[in-house]
Amino acid sequence: QQPVQSPQAVILREGEDAVINCSSSKALYSVHWYRQKHGEAPVFLMILLKGGEQKGHDKISASFNEKKQQSSLYLTASQLSYSGTYFCGTEVGTASKLTFGTGTRLQVTL
Amino acid sequence: DTGVSQNPRHKITKRGQNVTFRCDPISEHNRLYWYRQTLGQGPEFLTYFQNEAQLEKSRLLSDRFSAERPKGSFSTLEIQRTEQGDSAMYLCASSPRQGNIQYFGAGTRLSVL
């Protein structure tokens, strides 16, 4: 079953923050986050393994709540380059397929 | 690393024709995945290989679809007797032996007329 992402779309002014959520009905081994710009390949952002760890680099971070099977992606001080569609991909076992959510379209404006 | 390479980037075909796509993974990545993505949707899993062994197929992969990875390096995805519903972006990803970060290629966009 496909993970549910929220919100479906968000518009930000440059410098504002955003949170994107991903929820699964299955017990997860890991959550992967990708950003895809129109007509381009999905680009890997980060992976979170079960254990509830939080990761981040630069102004993008993420958390994984294993009890709730939820992950959140945090974008702080957004930049124009953050625009795109964000997908979470969930994995129920090691080295297996990813099941992607429906995506969150993010637009950052001046 | 040169990244995951997919060819062709675009393919236009007539309904009923057969098409074949190629994916060259990142060097020494032993796992290779095929996904299909339609407009406004996330990628949907089709199949994956560990070395030359095909380990899993999605139900999306009807008997018209077949994939190979004969020497554990590049892979091909063939669609026989294409239908208009096959129009989509076909994405390939590869991952290394350790961990499962999947790196995607730019995809092959198929249009079936």
Number of helices of chain B: 0
Q: Which percent band covers the strand fraction of chain B?
A: over 45%
Radius of gyration of chain B using CA atoms only: 13 Å
For the largest interface, the chains and their residue counts are: A-B, 23 and 24 residues
Which percent bin holds the helix content of chain B? under 10%
Shape by Cα distribution of chain B: globular
The termini of chain A sit apart by 37 Å
Structural topology:
The complex is a heterodimer of chains A (110) and B (113).
Chain A: E1 4-6, E2 9-13, E3 18-23, E4 30-36, E5 43-49, E6 54-57, E7 60-65, E8 70-75, E9 84-91, E10 99-100, E11 104-109
Parallel strand pairs in A: 2-11
Antiparallel strand pairs in A: 1-3, 3-8, 4-5, 4-9, 6-7, 7-8, 9-10, 9-11
Chain B: E1 5-7, E2 10-13, E3 19-24, E4 31-37, E5 44-50, E6 53-57, E7 65-68, E8 75-79, E9 88-95, E10 103-104, E11 108-112
Parallel strand pairs in B: 2-11
Antiparallel strand pairs in B: 1-3, 3-8, 4-5, 4-9, 5-6, 7-8, 9-10, 9-11
